[in-house]
Amino acid sequence: GESNTCITGVWLIKDNFNSESPSGIIDGNTWIVILGSFQSESDANDLMERCNSSGLNTEVFSTNSFQYLAKDYFIVCSGRIFKKADAIVVAADYKSRGFENYIKNAGMMQ
Questions:
Q1: Is-contact 33 76, C-beta < 8 A?
Q2: For the sheet containing 59-62, what is the strand order?
Q3: pTM over 0.70
Q4: What is the dihedral of CA 91, 14, 32, 37, to 10 degrees?
Q5: Is the distance from CB of 9 to CB of 90 less than 8 angstroms?
Q6: Which DSSP helix (H) or strand (E) runs through 69?
Q7: How far apart are CA 48 and CA 19, in angstroms?
């Protein structure tokens, strides 16, 4: 198994995206912790149920809802997080419970 998927996944974040403006006003970036992506919504729902029965708080979204994600997939994710630092904490929590994941800046919801 690849035990460091979460850590290696973090490099996918482009550090030039600032998760909040200097005034603290959110600038529209949306960080999500992704546990899986599927072409089938039912497969995504199956993973969401497994995650949530283990105490995680996950949702299924269509990637078409987000500005920066590849289209036509269903993702199991943390829901929307507005600060990169908070997403990193959530990702580490999920990893500690045995769920591999990665962080993406999904951009604004569409």
A1: no
A2: 59-62, 74-77, 31-38, 102-105
A3: yes
A4: -90
A5: no
A6: none
A7: 26
